[in-house]
Each structure stands twice: as structure tokens, then as C-alpha cells.
Amino acid sequence: MITGDGADEIFAGYNFLVKKDHSELKDELKRLKEIMHFTSQKIADELGISIQMPFVDENIINAVETLPISLLINQKNDKKFGKWILRKAFENDLPSSVIWRKKQQCKMVRVQQA
């Protein structure tokens, strides 16, 4: 199984990132890279599932850091989109409704112990 962990962090996929100017964006992406942490591997191990997380591979991260901002964030129909290069890479293979959908916030469920 392959996860998408890290894609939002390295390809500027979060909504708040598309609003930043170039220097702020570079700083924020650097900060996110330093703090990103995912539980997918631990969960997969517990379930006995083998996973790959290509977007947290250091070689991928280093390659993405060399890309111009315009390949991370760009506009279509006057709307800014993050993860631009990923969207363009799959534009001919996936439905437009998937490629150009707006980023949805993850809904969190609060669990409280008694």
C-alpha cells in the first residue's frame, strides 16, 4: 500500500500555504519538513500491513526543494492551487473533479477518557 503522507507538506498542499508570498512559503515549507510526523507506519506495523511513503523519502524531498514555486502553487480559473505539479502530472489520467477539487479539512474526533 502506498500513502500520500508528506505530499501536502512538501508540495504546498495546505490552503494556508497558497496565500503566502514566495519567501514566507519557502520558510514555512522548511518548517513543515522539520516537524512533519505521520502515524501511518506505526499503524501499518500494528495491522501487519506493508506500506510505502514516497513523499517522505529524503530524495523526493530534496528534489522538490529545487522546484520553482510555480510548480508547487499556480492558478487555474483565477483560483490558486497547491500541489500543482502533482495535479498536472495526473490531469490526463484522473477526472477533473478529482484533480481540481478544493482541499478539504480533516475532521478530527475528540476522544475523552473517563
UniProtKB/TrEMBL annotation:
Keyword Nucleotide-binding listed? The answer is: yes
> Its Enzyme Commission number?
6.3.5.4
> Which terms in the Gene Ontology molecular function aspect does this entry carry?
asparagine synthase (glutamine-hydrolyzing) activity; ATP binding
The record's listing under InterPro entries reads: Asn_synthase, Asn_Synthetase, Rossmann-like_a/b/a_fold
Q: Which UniProt keywords apply?
A: ATP-binding, Ligase, Nucleotide-binding
Spell out the GO cellular component terms annotated for this protein, sorted alphabetically and separated by semicolons.
cytosol
State if ATP-binding is listed as a keyword: yes
In Gene Ontology terms, what is a biological process of this protein? Answer: asparagine biosynthetic process
Q: Record's CDD domains?
A: Asn_synthase_B_C (cd01991)
Task: Look up the domain of life of the source.
Answer: Archaea
Q: Cite the Asparagine synthetase domain residue spans from the record.
A: 35-107
Designated name of the protein: Asparagine synthase (AsnB, ASNS)
Q: What is the lineage of its organism?
A: Archaea, Nitrososphaerota, environmental samples
State the gene name recorded for this protein: ASNS
